Amino acid sequence: MRRSIRALTAALLALPLALAAAPSAHAADPTTMTNGFYVDPDSSAKRWVASNPGDGRASAINASIANTPTARWFGSWSGTIGTATGAYAGAADRADKLPLLVAYNVYNRDYCGGHSAGGASSPSAYASWIAQFAGGIGNRPAVVILEPDSLGDYGCMTQAQIDERERMLTGALTEFSRQAPNTWVYLDAGNPGWASPATMAQRLHEAGLRQARGFSLNVSNYFTTAENTNYGNAVNNELRARYGYTKPFVVDTSRNGNGSNGQWCNPSGRRIGTPTQQGGGAEMLLWIKVPGESDGNCGVGAGSSAGQFLPEVAYKMIYGY
């Protein structure tokens, strides 16, 4: 693992300020332990390009989507989860790159929305699964987005179910703190169109945000980076006023180039956004959702299933039509 003296020195000098602004169990900065972000060699876009080299859309999809660092999502489809996360983090480590992983297996996942319903079979099954997820990463540097939509999906849930979910998320953060000291974990906070900043700040805090690096915004959605930055800052204002701390946040920019038209499920006319990078109004701008992957059987993805790669949707998203 390459690690420059200059990067190490900068990290050590910045450490007291970082801890004061964003209390966390993690002292290490995985961005200084690696040389850029990891490109998933087996993403749905990569697989489609490899299987369709003669397709007229392949060159554009390869250049604009398949070679941009994008998160890999892990869930029940991932097999033995510790082996899966260990292999992925290990491959990135050997390449001296920072991998982006999404944990997406919480019990009663997408309980109210339904398009991505599923998850672990029980809270205890989830606790075991997420512990193995963290253990697979171990000491390797990584960024993890923890359970997209989980704090926004409260509309039809009872208070008992909400409490149960918050305990699962707090337990997950504890496992990363215990087993993955070089991982930055961002607890997902939905998007600007879902809950008020005050409501989201309360949900984040009650789900254990203090243990996380920060929170994530706009995962699989379309709101502009500016809208998300304003919302993230408003959430932090609420966190500061109510609980006495703030946290860094990251924004999913994979599909927000044209902003939102008010629809969240495979809307037409969307466009890819700023590629994965540090800074840009948030701590990082990340491609968390693969552009071209369906949100479900809806919109321009009618007849598809959530996560299915749709080359025509991907191609049009490159050009914004």
Automatic annotation (TrEMBL):
What Gene3D superfamilies does UniProt report for this protein, alphabetically?
A: 1, 4-beta cellobiohydrolase
Q: Does the keyword Disulfide bond apply?
A: yes
Keywords, ordered alphabetically: Carbohydrate metabolism, Cellulose degradation, Disulfide bond, Glycosidase, Hydrolase, Polysaccharide degradation, Signal
Q: Which Pfam families match?
A: Glyco_hydro_6 (PF01341)
The top EC class is hydrolase
Please state the span of the N-terminal signal peptide per the UniProt entry: 1-27
Active-site positions, per UniProt? 149
UniProt-listed Enzyme Commission number(s)? 3.2.1.-
Q: Which PROSITE patterns match?
A: GLYCOSYL_HYDROL_F6_2
Molecular-function annotations in GO: hydrolase activity
> Hydrolase among the record's keywords?
yes
Family listed: Belongs to the glycosyl hydrolase family 6.
Question: What is the name of this protein?
Answer: Glucanase
From which source organism is this entry? Streptomyces chitinivorans
Biological classification of the source: Bacteria, Bacillati, Actinomycetota, Actinomycetes, Kitasatosporales
